Amino acid sequence: MNLRDAVVLITGANRGIGFAFAEAAMKRGARKVYAAARSPSTVTLKGVVAVQLDVTLAEEVAAAAQLCSDVTLVVNNAGIAHMGSLLGSKATEYAQRHFDTNVLGMLRVMQCFAPTLAANGGGAFLNVLSAASWINSGAMNAYAVSKAAAWSLTNGLRNELRAQNTQVLGLHMGFVDTDMTKGLDIPKVSPQSIVDKALDALEAGASEVLADERARQIHRGLTAEPPVYL
Length: 230
Ligand SMILES: NC(=O)c1ccc[n+]([C@@H]2O[C@H](COP(=O)([O-])OP(=O)(O)OC[C@H]3O[C@@H](n4cnc5c(N)ncnc54)[C@H](OP(=O)(O)O)[C@@H]3O)[C@@H](O)[C@H]2O)c1
Known about the structure:
Distance between the termini: 37 Å
Strand content: 5-15%
Order of helices and strands: EHEEHEHEHEHEH
Bound molecules: NADP nicotinamide-adenine-dinucleotide phosphate
CATH class: Alpha Beta
Structural class: alpha/beta
CATH superfamily: NAD(P)-binding Rossmann-like Domain
Oligomer: single chain
CATH topology: Rossmann fold
Shape: globular
Number of helices: 6
Number of strands: 7
Number of domains: 1
Radius of gyration: 17 Å
């Protein structure tokens, strides 16, 4: 799909990668950009329309879909990532919180906005996933479990939405320089570089984009012997 004249809604658009999506969508000629955020007062980018949206609250997702009935592209960006072992005392609680935001949040948004996209000619969902969809190697274990589920959700819904001509693009990358990775002393790429690759892939009609070298390396390793996830 083309960004020129698109009407775009981005979840978690007040900072990080979501902010970069909002900026880039405007630069590429989107007709309107809805910057959705848990606290709309934190949306500082000029020229966007701030919208109240906590993806864990079904009533807020439904209200946003009703309000933004002209949307043609939804960027499912909102996400959380907390440290913690899967054997820790809070593991179940952490897993639930990650699922509620990173998986069920995406599902709520796609269920509510699918009819909107259909009514507006098909449009697209761009789902922000991660190289953590494929490996679970570090301290953010519950996060990786949730991103693996979000990847599968994305693939399943792509099949279901084909009938209404809705493009579904899954975006994978390694570490990006945002609040989420603050304090991690590791190589990171810029949010802008990721967003540029993602929007190029969207405009080219792709279903999946590996937006940095780390994601491409891990993806290649899935069929190595031994595979990278073991
Ligand atoms: N940074 C990385 O290295 C990296 C790598 C791969 C994938 N990702 C993915 O990229 C996406 C954006 O991450 P980021 O790096 O930009 O993180 P970030 O800087 O921590 O920003 C997260 C955004 O998500 C919003 N959010 C969290 N929970 C929400 C909820 N329940 N409802 C609505 N919005 C919510 C936050 O809003 P508040 O300001 O209200 O908290 C914030 O706008 C996430 O899906 C993340 O998993 C990030």
